[in-house]
């Protein structure tokens, strides 16, 4: 076997199969002919690229690639294995077959289960900024971090675990076991008294979130606002950021006034700071709603200047890119019961190689096909909890009847937000609501669900209809009619059309008033005159008959 074990769930020999790599590395460092008692372990911490790299050999890499990172490692000696003996190396190889590198806990358990114990260990932190010259064996501490940390250890077998993960990166570096020293894989007549490993972490790109503020958009024609937040973490320079709002064009109309707002938010230690970006300078906005289609999209794409702003702030802090868009709520279709659902997709891209000027990075365009295309609407079953904000707008059909059940027409109403029939607050209609056949109110915000969350009943408002004109021969309503628009009790993903039946009483409560004045008096006078004429005629006839 090769005199050197790097175990990550199994045995890994230090043989190099690439002659070009072997030649390049042999020029850097050869090691010693005698097995050293003091060995320096160098940990070079970098970000993981798009493709996996070669397995470590113990030799340094002239260009390990990736971004230099800060992390902390624990190095613990497996005390019962003595690498100064052949038996110790055999035990090391046997342990490699039992070693479980799933995570730090399973690594320790597999070692102890095999009958070995771990020493207290030492820490290596990779932000010390130590630059080492492998040809001269000397080094110096610099102000610029190199993503490298090192420490000296005695001869032995060691468990190495990452205990502090770089900010903004996944803790995906598996624990590994390393032999100190290792046989030089290029020149197998020598030992390496300087051993190098290059564990890499995958960037943790945080998912975007979207929220809605619809509590101020009570009825169709009013404005609703969406906020899309995309967290960004330190790492290689971003050279592409695209935020896309996928909105239902049959329910919403994109507004340029108020204009979209894009800003960078970060915490400076004393609170949240904001940098408002300028349209056209830092980003472009394109509305791509197509006539006759129900799908619209607003595409916000960062320019080189905008990406430069991201770079400068991201050097020191995690940041959040926030985009606010405003839409006007369109009237519902008469039979509409579904909510307004606003989806989104984001796309970010980083440069694996540093930009010549990271404050002005060249802009990379997103893919134009496939699921990675941010302009392609999201498909498939969405994750749980549901990621897209919903706004529920219902329809109201006012049905006017008399006491017998006969339909009435011609009544007019004003619509108010209210807490009870005596407390009317905001008037919602601009013109009179006329109660005729069909749905009269199309698109009224549900009382039980606002700003994408359930409203407790105690906090709900109501709506009130105040009659301003009664049907002919009927009385005005004495007080407003109060009601609520609510989601369906059995299927809370819809808002049924609310049919509100309102009964009007006949004039004077159905009682006849006395007939006084006008036409009634004339008829009485006419009747009286008739009696007088008849009386005179009877009197004259009676007088003629008298002798």
TrEMBL record:
Domain of life where this protein originates: Bacteria
Record-annotated membrane-spanning stretches: 520-538
GO BP terms: carbohydrate metabolic process
All residue ranges annotated as the Gram-positive pilin subunit D1 N-terminal domain in the record: 37-202
Biased composition range(s): Pro residues: 375-385
Region (Disordered): 127-148, 331-385
All residue ranges annotated as the SpaA-like prealbumin fold domain in the record: 394-491
Record key words, sorted: Membrane, Transmembrane, Transmembrane helix
UniProt biased composition (Basic and acidic residues): 127-137, 349-359
Cited InterPro entries: FM1-like, GramPos_pilinD1_N, Ig-like_fold, SpaA_PFL_dom_1
NCBIfam families recorded: iso_D2_wall_anc
Protein name: Uncharacterized protein
Species whose genome carries this gene: Corynebacterium phocae
């Amino acid at each position: 076997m090769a005199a050197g074990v790097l175990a990550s769930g199994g045995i890994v020999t230090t043989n190099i199969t690439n002659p070009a790599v072997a030649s390049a590395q042999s020029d850097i460092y050869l090691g010693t002919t005698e097995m050293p008692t003091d060995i320096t372990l160098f940990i070079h911490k970098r970000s993981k690229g798009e493709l996996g790299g070669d397995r470590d050999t113990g030799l340094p890499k002239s260009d390990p690639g990736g971004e230099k990172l800060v992390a902390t490692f624990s190095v613990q000696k497996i005390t019962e294995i003595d690498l100064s003996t052949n038996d110790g190396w055999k035990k090391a190889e046997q342990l490699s077959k039992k070693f479980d590198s799933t995570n730090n806990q399973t690594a320790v358990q597999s070692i102890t289960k095999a009958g070995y114990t771990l020493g207290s260990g030492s820490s290596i932190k990779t932000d010390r900024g130590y630059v080492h010259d492998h040809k001269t064996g000397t080094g110096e501490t610099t102000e610029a971090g190199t993503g490298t940390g090192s420490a000296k250890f005695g001869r032995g077998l060691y468990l190495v675990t990452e205990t502090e993960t770089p900010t903004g990166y996944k803790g995906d570096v598996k624990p590994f076991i390393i032999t100190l020293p290792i046989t030089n894989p290029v020149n197998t007549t020598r030992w390496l008294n300087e051993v190098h490993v290059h564990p890499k972490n995958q960037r943790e790109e945080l998912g975007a979130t979207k929220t809605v503020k619809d509590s101020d958009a009570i009825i169709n024609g009013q404005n609703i606002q969406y906020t899309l937040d995309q967290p960004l973490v330190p790492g290689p320079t971003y050279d592409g950021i695209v935020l896309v709002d996928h909105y239902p064009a049959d329910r919403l109309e994109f507004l340029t006034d108020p204009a979209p707002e894009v800003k960078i938010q970060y915490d400076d230690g004393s609170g949240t700071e904001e940098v408002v970006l300028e349209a056209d300078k830092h980003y472009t906005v394109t509305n791509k709603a197509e006539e006759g289609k129900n799908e619209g999209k607003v595409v916000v794409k960062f320019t080189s200047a905008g990406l430069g702003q991201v770079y400068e702030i991201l050097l020191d802090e995690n940041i959040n890119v926030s985009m606010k868009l405003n839409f006007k709520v369109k009237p519902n279709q008469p039979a509409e019961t579904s909510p307004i659902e606003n989806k989104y997709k984001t796309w970010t891209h980083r440069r694996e190689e540093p930009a010549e000027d990271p404050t002005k990075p060249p802009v990379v365009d997103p893919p134009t096909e496939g699921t990675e295309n941010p302009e392609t609407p999201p498909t498939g079953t969405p994750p749980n909890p549901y990621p897209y904000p919903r706004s529920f707008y219902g329809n109201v059909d006012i049905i006017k009847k008399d006491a017998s059940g006969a339909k009435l027409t011609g009544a007019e109403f004003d619509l108010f937000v209210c807490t009870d029939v005596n407390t009317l607050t905001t008037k919602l209609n601009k013109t009179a609501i006329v109660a005729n056949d069909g749905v009269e109110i199309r698109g009224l915000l549900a009382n039980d669900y606002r700003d994408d969350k359930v409203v407790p009943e105690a906090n709900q408002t109501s709506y009130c209809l105040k009659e301003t004109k009664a049907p002919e021969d009927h009385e005005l309503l004495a007080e407003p009619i109060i009601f609520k628009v609510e989601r369906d009790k059995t299927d809370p993903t819809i808002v049924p059309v609310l049919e509100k039946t309102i009964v009007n009483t006949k004039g004077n409560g159905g009682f006849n008033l006395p007939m006084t004045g006008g036409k009634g008096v004339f008829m009485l006078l006419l009747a009286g005159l008739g009696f007088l004429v008849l009386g005179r005629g009877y009197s004259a006839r009676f007088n003629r008959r008298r002798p």
